[in-house]
Amino acid sequence: MKILLSAAGIAAIAMSSGLSPASAGQEVNLYSYRQPFLIKPMLKGFTKKTGIKVNVVYAKKGMLERIKAEGENTPADAVLTTDVGRLSDMVDAGVLASVKSDVLNKNIPAQYRHPDGLWFAQTTRARILFTSKERVKPGEVTSYEDLADPRLKGRICIRSGKHLYNISLIASMIAHKGQAAAEKWLTGVKNNLARRPQGNDRAQARAVYEGVCDIGLANTYYMGKMQTNEKKPVQKKWAAALNIVFPNQADRGTHVNISGAAVLKHAKHKANAIKLLEYLSENTAQKIYAKQNYEYPVKPGVPLSLLVESWGTFKSDSLNLAEISKHRAQAAKMVDRVGFDH
Ligand code: FE
């Protein structure tokens, strides 16, 4: 079952979803922004181990609007999504339950779970630099701060400053350096852009490959997706033209974002939902989940896929993502104020 949500389509979808709000059997109902190929293997393992059936509604947008519209009658017990921004929007909307779980607290480092147990990361992804093997020397660019240095004028490509991934990165700059310094930085980055922000993360890799710019910003897993892309083999060429730089290794570490899960306040199968989140945080699921999408397991010590391991180890920012998220609204305003996308 694959259902795309839109605000207008909520009623129709709710009726056709097949999720029954009041049933009390051994089941759990999930709304997922994560695609079937990513989560099906783990959900199967969960049902096999616990006997709890998982019903999933897959969505590409409109999840929070739907949950809000359904209110107390929502059939969903838990959500799976990417980006702390989406999880924070759910926190702000008051739709999440506070979960206390020793298993989750043990498996997931503190910076990757909400302080009140409102959400928990399952995988992580780093926001890294793709640098041209030909035109950027090792050590030439080593931090996000470098991106604002006038010596990089006309050499940087990036997607819209308003995209979730960049909003979180800018919010992390505000959290660490304060509003004024972050704004000076963002203005500096804008002044160094080779072109108006556009495209997705992979488009930045392509632009470096094609010589439009020398440095692009992207999430780590896109490197894996390009390196293994049999459907569009040209992407292997893009990837082969790039080095990966994990920024800020000499100080606070690289900015990392997450995929994560949360239990809903109005969940009808709350205990089962918590069991599912716990299962997803254990070794077996962690290994499969991270491997499927070239991400990093959130649980320390779980082996990486060989491809991801080949990119090298790195130090990540240890500031709690919930703390970083508090600055997202400021970050969005800052993007407008400096005219980043224009
Ligand atoms: Fe992505």
What does this 3D model show about the protein?
The chain has 342 residues and is α/β, with parallel strands linked by helices. 40% of the residues lie in helices and 15% in strands. The protein has 15 helices and nine strands. Strands 1, 2, 3, 4, 5, 6, 7, 8 and 9 form a nine-stranded mixed beta sheet that branches. The model is unreliable at 1-18 and 20-24 (pLDDT under 50). Bound molecules: fe (iii) ion.
CATH-scheme architecture of the largest domain: 3-Layer(aba) Sandwich
Major sheet: 9 strands, mixed
**Unique ligands:** fe (iii) ion
Measured on Cα atoms, how large is the radius of gyration? 20 Å
Strand content: 5-15%
Considering DSSP H and I runs of 4 or more, what fraction of the residues is helical?
Answer: 40-55%
> Oligomeric status of the shown chains?
single chain
* CATH class annotation of the largest domain: Alpha Beta
Described by the principal axes of the CA atoms, the overall outline is globular
Topology:
Layout (H helix, E strand, L loop, with lengths): L9 H7 L10 E6 L3 H15 L2 E6 L4 H8 L7 E5 L1 H10 L8 H6 L12 E13 L23 E2 L6 H14 L1 H13 L9 H9 L5 E5 H8 L6 H7 L1 E4 L10 E8 L6 H11 L2 H10 L3 E2 L8 H4 L11 H5 L2 H10 L5
Parallel strand pairs: 1-2, 1-3, 5-6
Antiparallel strand pairs: 3-8, 4-6, 4-7, 4-8, 4-9
Helix pairs in contact: 2-12, 6-7, 6-15, 8-10, 9-10
Bound molecules: fe (iii) ion.
Question: What's the short version?
Answer:
This protein is an alpha/beta fold. It folds into two domains: 2-124 and 257-303, Periplasmic binding protein-like II (D-Maltodextrin-Binding Protein, domain 2, 3-Layer(aba) Sandwich), CATH 3.40.190; 125-254 and 318-337, D-Maltodextrin-Binding Protein, domain 2 (3-Layer(aba) Sandwich). The chain is built from 15 helices and nine strands.
